């Protein structure tokens, strides 16, 4: 943009100067032409009244209009000493008799054609008293002056050719175009070189900013080590100021990331420690509760006490599950490696769907493996293998199926379908329930996210199920996403649709 701006400014300035110089030259040449035509008219007037030419004047005015006689003499005054080549003269007396001729490039007197005389007669009758420009067919542009003979008062038109002036102006314009073009090209080359040289530090600053921008900073321990080099931090230039400001910004961002990392580490450590410490007392509570509930027959509890024991047992169980979920998320956040083994998805899916059907008898679960095995579902034909931790993958499927069971009304149909797309296996879990509200979609995989009234909290949901699914899938190099069921199933599945993607085992 800088180069284009400079080139445009140079072009406009050079073009303006060229136009002004051409206009000034044209005005100067026109003034000179006026002087020449006035001088030629004065010489002709003096010549016509000299003693040696008086009888020639009378003879010439008797020539017929447009005569082509070979012994024709020039109009009086055209033969005056000093008349240049290209000068023309036209005389008209009171009786309307016209005499006209011009001096050609060889210095000879030449007749004017009838059309040329008509053009000059129109100029003669224009009534103008100052020099003006007329185009004469076959002769070119002329500067003419209409006067009255000082003695006879006959009308006299004198003209001088502007051919040399026009040629000079044409050469001037060609030279100006060449100079303007050369100047623009030279300015572009010089400006491009200078701008490229001066912007090299800025390009390096921009490269530093791009490298920092591409560095992942959303999770984990992040350290921004890239900085603008000291050579580009000259404070006397704008680029140096930008580089210094960028380094300062990166220092602040790096400090903020370190603070965030320390805070996250402390939170994870606290969650892990608290969860670990809670497991023992929760196990003790559950143990003592079971002990009281299974006491001797003589030690019967009252109905209220029995209900209290049941509540203590159920809540301690739910608390234990929450603690286990928190511990699992803490391990995944810490980047602890999972089991790495070949896992056959077919039996995992079959068993998970069977377990879900038993846990939710009021729902209908349908498993479709035909996209991988064919219509006959010959499980020995091809094994859908992935690498990972089988127990954790089972947990993902259990969470997705439990999510479909707990947050949909009785009678809901749940579809589970296995697909292979490229180098990924995709497990689709969809239902025809009430679906997920748009307000919840953006934060669905965040921790402790719970559904609204349309998918209310049933079964003691902790809001960690989908977060655990996403973390386990990411640890396996895959993902869990909320998708459009129409892309995988028919129109019957119009509720929630989750897709678990896992890379095919190599």
Automatic annotation (TrEMBL):
* Enzyme Commission code(s) on record: 2.7.13.3
Q: Where are the transmembrane segments?
A: 173-195
List the GO cellular component terms: plasma membrane
State whether keyword NAD applies.
Answer: no
Q: Which InterPro entries match?
A: HAMP_dom, HATPase_C_sf, HATPase_dom, His_kinase_dom, HisK_dim/P_dom, HisK_dim/P_sf, Sensor_HK_Regulatory, Sig_transdc_His_kin-like_C
Task: Report the subcellular localization.
Answer: Cell membrane
Checking PANTHER family in the record gives: HISTIDINE KINASE 1, TWO-COMPONENT HISTIDINE KINASE
Name one matching Pfam family.
HisKA
Reaction catalysed by this chain? Answer: ATP + protein L-histidine = ADP + protein N-phospho-L-histidine
Q: What phylogenetic lineage does the species belong to?
A: Bacteria, Bacillati, Actinomycetota, Actinomycetes, Actinomycetales
Q: Which organism is it from?
A: Actinomyces graevenitzii C83
What keywords tag this UniProt record?
Kinase, Membrane, Phosphoprotein, Transferase, Transmembrane, Transmembrane helix, Two-component regulatory system
In what residue span(s) does the HAMP domain sit? 196-258
List residues of the Histidine kinase domain. 273-506
How is this protein named in the record? histidine kinase
Write one Gene Ontology MF term.
phosphorelay sensor kinase activity
Keyword Kinase in annotation: yes
């Amino acid at each position: 943009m800088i180069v284009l701006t400079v080139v445009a400014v140079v072009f406009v300035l050079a073009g303006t100067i060229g136009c002004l110089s051409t206009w000034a030259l044209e005005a100067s040449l026109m003034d000179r032409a006026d002087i020449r035509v006035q001088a030629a008219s004065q010489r002709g007037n003096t010549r016509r009244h000299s003693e040696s030419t008086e009888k020639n004047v009378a003879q010439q005015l008797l020539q017929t209009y447009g005569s082509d006689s070979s012994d024709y003499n020039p109009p009086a005054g055209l033969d005056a000493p000093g008349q240049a080549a290209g000068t023309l003269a036209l005389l008209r007396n009171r009786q309307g008799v016209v005499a006209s001729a011009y001096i050609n490039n060889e210095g000879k007197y030449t007749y004017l054609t009838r059309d040329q005389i008509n053009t000059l007669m129109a100029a003669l009758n224009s009534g103008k008293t100052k020099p003006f420009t007329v185009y004469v067919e076959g002769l070119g542009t002329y500067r003419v002056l209409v006067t009255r003979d000082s003695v006879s008062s006959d009308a006299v038109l004198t003209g001088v050719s502007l051919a040399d002036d026009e040629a000079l102006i044409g050469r001037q314009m060609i030279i100006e175009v060449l100079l303007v073009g050369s100047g623009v090209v030279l300015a572009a080359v010089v400006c491009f070189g200078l701008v490229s040289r001066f912007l090299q530090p800025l390009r390096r600053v921009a490269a530093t900013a791009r490298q920092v921008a591409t560095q992942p900073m959303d999770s984990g321990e992040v350290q921004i080590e890239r900085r603008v080099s000291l050579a580009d931090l000259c404070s006397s230039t704008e680029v140096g100021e930008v580089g210094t400001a960028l380094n300062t910004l990166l220092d602040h961002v790096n400090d903020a990331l370190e603070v965030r990392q320390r805070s996250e580490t402390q939170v994870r450590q606290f969650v892990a420690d608290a969860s670990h410490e809670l497991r023992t007392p929760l196990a003790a509570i559950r143990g003592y509760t079971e002990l009281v509930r299974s006491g001797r027959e003589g030690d019967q509890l009252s109905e209220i006490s029995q209900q209290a024991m049941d509540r203590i047992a159920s809540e301690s169980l739910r608390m234990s599950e929450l603690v286990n979920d928190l511990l699992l998320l803490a391990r995944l956040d810490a980047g602890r490696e999972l089991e790495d083994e070949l896992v056959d998805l077919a039996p995992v899916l079959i068993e998970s769907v069977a377990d879900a059907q038993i846990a939710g008898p009021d729902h209908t679960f349908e498993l479709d493996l035909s996209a991988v095995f064919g219509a006959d579902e010959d499980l020995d034909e091809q094994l859908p293998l992935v690498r990972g931790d089988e127990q954790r993958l089972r947990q993902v499927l259990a969470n997705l199926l439990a999510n479909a069971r707990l947050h949909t009304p009785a009678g809901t149909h749940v579809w589970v379908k296995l697909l292979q797309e490229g180098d990924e296996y995709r497990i689709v879990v969809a239902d025809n329930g009430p679906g997920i509200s748009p307000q919840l979609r953006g934060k669905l995989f965040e921790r402790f996210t719970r559904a609204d009234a349309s998918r209310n909290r049933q079964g003691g949901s902790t809001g960690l199920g989908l977060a655990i699914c996403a973390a386990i899938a990411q640890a396996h190099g895959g993902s869990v996403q909320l998708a459009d069921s129409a892309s995988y199933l028919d129109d019957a599945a119009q509720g929630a649709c989750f897709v678990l993607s896992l890379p095919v085992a190599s």
